[in-house]
Recover the amino acids of this structure.
């Protein structure tokens, strides 16, 4: 196990009403879809996907979703340090693709941004579909535009882009054809729909799942998924959509820290 690196926060931006991006002057050399464990001493350690990365910086987009993340938002200021260990997990893969669609929803957007950085620089035609409840919650539009991805957005209330689900936009792209693979990270019900739609059109997909994680590197068994028993921190978090769909719990339930089943 690698020890957490005490990385100093050099910048913080508020990117939606619930999400702040914490920037560190450190290159994690994470592959897109990989995650790190973020330690707030005395509170907890939580998994976060690696977002935007450059040679000099890495960004973590952290939503205020509960105890630890609320304390990160409240307590951590520029100049403070967070303990970061990793990166861990299986990344998205895109070798051999020439045209792909990325679908991001909510705080699933950071790894999609990291993936877009890599696929654009690999010369792959990259269509990005972003969904949010309203325009205030749309994440990283400027960064996607700076990459010159083909960006479309959908909001539930129609305050920006298509009014409705981001999967409506995906269906249009799949109908047009020529897509090699669809990649997604976001609310699990959305990812089930994306994987099912891709299957319907005979297109491969990759999904990045979340389960409660403790060790993050395959020894505690906390993140095992029914029925295969795969450890999501090790064999995931990115799985082929077809493989994810074989899991009885995908889109239905997951386990809390205690092991208790929770409906999704
Ligand atoms: C691989 C992976 C990548 C993730 N990437 C991001 C990201 O880029 N940005 C982001 O905002 N969030 C991300 N998350 C979710 C994030 O880890 C949880 O929102 C966070 O752990 C909540 O912790 P909390 O103590 O604030 O909330 P709690 O009050 O403890 O719980 C709130 C919710 O978060 C879930 N949760 C709590 N602790 C963990 C844990 N150790 N592992 C997994 N889920 C947990 C709970 O099941 C619950 O549904 C990711 C999760 C995983 C597994
Ligand atoms: S979090 Fe420990 S095995 Fe996955």
């Amino acid at each position: 196990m690698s020890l957490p690196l005490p990385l100093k926060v050099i910048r913080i931006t508020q990117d939606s009403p619930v999400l702040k991006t914490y920037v560190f002057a450190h290159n994690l050399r994470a592959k897109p879809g990989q995650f790190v464990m973020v330690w707030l001493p005395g509170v907890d350690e939580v998994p976060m996907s690696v977002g935007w990365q450059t040679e000099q910086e890495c960004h973590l987009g952290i939503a205020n979703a509960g105890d630890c993340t609320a304390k990160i938002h409240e307590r951590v200021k520029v100049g403070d340090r967070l303990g970061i260990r990793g990166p861990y997990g299986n990344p998205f893969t895109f070798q051999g693709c020439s045209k792909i669609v990325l679908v991001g929803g909510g705080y699933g957007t950071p790894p999609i941004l990291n993936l877009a950085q890599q696929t654009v620089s690999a010369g792959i035609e990259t269509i990005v579909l972003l969904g949010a409840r309203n325009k205030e919650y749309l994440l990283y539009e400027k960064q996607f535009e700076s990459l010159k991805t083909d960006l479309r957005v959908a909001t539930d209330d129609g305050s920006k882009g298509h009014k409705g689900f981001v999967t409506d936009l995906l269906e249009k792209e799949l109908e047009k054809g020529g897509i090699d693979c669809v990649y997604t990270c976001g609310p699990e019900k959305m990812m089930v729909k994306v994987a099912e739609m891709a299957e319907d059109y005979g297109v491969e997909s990759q999904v990045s799942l979340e389960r409660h994680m403790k060790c993050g590197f395959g020894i505690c068994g906390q993140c095992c998924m029914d029925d295969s028993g795969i450890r999501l921190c090790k064999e995931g978090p990115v799985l082929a959509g077809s493989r994810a769909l074989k899991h009885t719990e995908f889109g239905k339930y997951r386990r809390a820290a205690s092991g208790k089943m929770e409906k999704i």
